[in-house]
Amino acid sequence: MTSNNIDRRDFFKAAAGLGLAATLPMIPGLSRAAGGSVVVGTWGGDYENLLQQIISPILKKQGVDVVFDTGNSEPRITKLRAEKNSRRGSMDVPLLSDLDMYQVSLSDVLAPVDANAQHIPNLVNVYDQFRTPYSIPHIFSAMVLVYSTKKFPTPPTSIDIMLDPKNKGGTGFSDILFSPNALFVGAGTSPAGRIKSFQPGIDFLKKLKKNAPRVYPSNEAVAAAFKSGEIWISAMWKARALQWRDAGLPVDFVMPKEGSIPVTFEAAVAKNSRNKDAAWAYLNAMLDPMGQVQFAKAMGYAPTVRNAPMSDELRKRVGFTEAELKTLRPYDLAALNAAKSDYLDFWNKSFKVGL
C-alpha cells in the first residue's frame, strides 16, 4: 500500500492460499541499540493484550520497557497534531487504521519510514501492496456481516437485514469503528470502483436509525451484547468475528452481497519521539514473522509479511476465497479523509443522538 491507495487485492490473494514467497534474508547489524522506554498509542482491549504478550517481550530482550497510551483513535490523532511543535512528544509509536494513519501523515508529524529502513530489518519482507512512506502495516482483515446463529439458522445474505422491521433494536455497532461502519453499509450503493464518499453510508444509517440500532463504546462491548442476546446483527472485522466464534459466542459471519471493505492496521514513529531507537525497534518487532503468526492464530488477522510461516489451515482461516475477494471494495484514502470531519459530525451529532 502506498499513499496513492494501491488496490489491496493482490495481498488478499496471498492470504487466501497462494504459496509463500521465498523468505527474504534479514540483514543483521542494521538496527541501532534501543533501551529505555517506548510509549505506544493503541485502542486497548484484546489488541493491547496481545501486543503485551507478543511484542513487548521482544522489546524487553533489548532493554526496552513498553508503556501503553490507551484510548480511541480520534484523541490519538488530536494529540499527535497538538504536539507537532513540541521538541519531545508524549507518544513514540501511534497505532491507527489505514485511513486514520493517512490523515495523520498529512500533518507532517510522522518520521519517514523509507529513510529509516536500516532500523527496520523486517521491513524487507513486507508485501509491496501495503508499503507507505510513513507507516508499516501490522495486520489486516475485511469487514463482514456478523449474525446470531440463534436468530438466523439460515445465514443472511444482505446488509438490508438491518433494515427489516422484524430486527428492530437488534443491530449493534462499535463506536470506535464509526468510519468503516459507514463505508461497509454504504458499499453496495457506492459508485463502481473505489469508495470515495461517506454519503452512501450516511443515507443507509439515516434509514437504519428508524429501526433503533445500538452503539457500543468498544468491540468488546459488541461481543458482550451478542452474548447477552441484546443484539443479533453487527458489522465487524472478520478477525474479530472469528475470535468471538472461537470463544463460544453463538455467532457466524458472511460477506454480504453488496460488498465489503478491507482494512490495514498500521504503526508509525512520531517525528518528535523521545526515543526513536526504541520506536523503530518496536515497529521492527511488529513485523517479526513468528509474532505475525501468533496474531493470526490468536486474533484472526492476516500477516503483512511474506515470511510468516503459516500452515495451509491457518492461511485458509484468516484469508479469503476468490468469491469473497470479488466483494472487496477498495477506498480512496484522500477523498475519504477530506470528508471524514463532516461524517464524524453526522455520526456523533445526528446518528447516535437518541439511540
Structure overview:
- Helices cover 37% and strands 15% of the residues.
- It has 355 residues and is α/β, with parallel strands linked by helices.
- Strands 1, 2, 3, 4, 5, 6, 7, 8 and 9 form a nine-stranded mixed beta sheet that branches.
- α2 (45-60) links the parallel β1 (36-42) and β2.
- The radius of gyration is 20 Å and the shape is globular.
- Mean pLDDT is 89; it is low at 1-7 and 17-32.
Largest sheet: 9 strands, mixed
Number of helices: 13
Low-confidence stretches: 1-7, 17-32
- Rounded to an integer in angstroms, the radius of gyration calculated over CA atoms is 20 Å
Strand content: 15-25%
Please write the string of helix (H) and strand (E) elements: HEHEHEHEEHHEHEHEEHHHHH
Structural class: alpha/beta
- The proportion of residues forming helix, as a percent range, comes to 25-40%
What gap, in angstroms, lies between the N and C termini? 37 Å
How many DSSP-defined strands? 9
Q: So what's the overall shape? A: globular
Residue-averaged pLDDT, rounded?
89
Write the layout of secondary structure elements.
Layout (H helix, E strand, L loop, with lengths): L8 H8 L19 E7 L2 H16 L3 E7 L2 H10 L10 E5 H8 L30 E13 L22 E4 L3 H8 L13 H11 L4 E3 L2 H10 L4 E5 H9 L4 E4 L7 E6 L8 H11 L2 H11 L12 H7 L3 H4 L7 H19 L4
Parallel strand pairs: 1-2, 1-3, 5-6, 5-7
Antiparallel strand pairs: 3-9, 4-7, 4-8, 4-9
Helix pairs in contact: 2-9, 2-10, 3-4, 4-13, 5-6, 6-13
